[in-house]
Amino acid sequence: MRLFNENFIKSGGRGDSSNLKMVSSRKAERVWVRTAGYTAFALIAFAANSVLCRLALGEGTIDAASFTTIRLVSGALVLLLVNAAGKTGAVVDSGNWTSALMLFLYAVTFSFAYISLNTGTGALILFASVQATMIIFAIYKGERLGLMGSLGLFAALAGLTYLVFPGLTAPSPSGAALMAVAGISWGIYSLRGRGSRSPVAVTRDNFLRSTPFVLLISLIFFQDLHITFKGAFFAALSGGLTSAIGYVIWYAALRDHSATSAALVQLLVPVLAALGGVVLLSEALTVRLLLSSAMIIGGVALALTQRKNSKRAESAG
User: Fold this and answer.
1) What is the DSSP letter of 227?
2) Domain limits, the chain
3) Sequential pLDDT tens for the chain (317 residues)
4) Residues facing residue 227 across a β-bridge
């Protein structure tokens, strides 16, 4: 910075354009690293949601409506505590009923779908629907994948298909439909969160606004009420940590993602969920899992490399 100031003075206040470009490039690099960190945390949280839901519902420790209610209510409480505990930045945005409804639709259909779907099939349907929703919106708004992005998308989808489909039976039509609705709802929720300047406040408001909807669902399915301590713990952990905090971080990451890149990186979640199944559900670590993981991660990296290079070119131009 001292060198920059000296050059600026020597040039009579005009500044050195090469130094300006260098500063801009370093700033872009810091933004990219920050966004990558936020994104990685959020994706791990999303994968943990799938694992926690399967742990709870697969073992019959809680009913789907109660899992959804505890998940969203505990998320709202955690965000209220985060907001009260310290500074969360100036509140320049707030939640809204449309986003709250999308959050509710995602959460409730996600829970009910996992009653009849296994983890791999559910993850495929969910994130295929998310990706389709966000990429259709991106194309509608004029975004283009480009050659690298298209190749990355193809590789990632091929790896995801290879991971999930071979050896699996046809999924339940009702479960598949519910998970597709969950994916579309999450895609819309993510799109509405892009550009949010107050992620904690927005996520808190959306969680709070979703509580009347989930309480109504619990009332409708009251006859199926079944809650154990283990099931309630998994639901609260899913709501308070991997949902509430995870969504705040995701909203922060979305500020620097295009709709296309936000859709692509979420293709990593089924891989992470599958790895979580290996560790927590004693599922086998197969060659298929390793190869498909490499294809998906490589495809996402290829697509995001194009975006990173585009950002650098814009900052240097």
Assistant:
1) B
2) 39-146+171-263
3) 444 455 544 555 555 555 555 555 666 667 677 888 889 999 999 899 998 998 899 888 999 999 999 999 999 999 898 888 765 555 556 778 999 999 999 999 999 999 988 776 777 788 778 877 887 887 788 777 778 878 887 887 787 777 766 555 556 788 888 998 999 999 999 888 776 677 788 888 999 999 999 999 999 999 999 999 999 999 999 999 999 888 889 878 877 777 767 777 877 888 888 788 778 877 667 777 778 778 877 887 777 666 555 555 544 55
4) 62
Q: What are phi and psi of 248, to 5 degrees?
A: -60, -45
The DSSP call for residue 244 is I
**What is the distance of C-alpha 40 from the center of its chain?**
9
Q: Is 282 exposed, middle or buried (0-12, 13-18, 19+ CB in 10 A)?
A: exposed
Structure tokens at 144: 């283009």
Would the pTM count as exceeding 0.85?
no
| Amino acid, single-letter form, for residue 2 | R
The two three-digit tokens of residue 259, written as one number: 């709709």
Q: What does the buried/exposed string (b/e) look like for 108-133 if buried means 16 or more CB atoms within 10 Å of the residue's CB?
A: bbbbbbbbbbbbbbbbbbbbbbbbeb
| Residue 183 CB coordination number (10 Å) | 28
The answer to whether 217 touches 65, Cβ cutoff 8 Å, is yes
Instruction: Report the distance separating Cα 250 and Cα 263, nearest Å.
Output: 12
In three state form, how does the secondary structure of 107-175 look? HHHHHHHCCCCCHHHHHHHHHHHHHHHHHHHHHHCCCCCHHHHHHHHHHHHHHHHHHHCCCCCCCCHHH
Among the listed residues 249, 138, 146, 152, the one whose alpha carbon sits nearest the alpha carbon of residue 193: 249
Largest CA distance in the chain: 80
The residues facing 62 across adjacent strands are 227
Structure tokens at 271: 């891989």
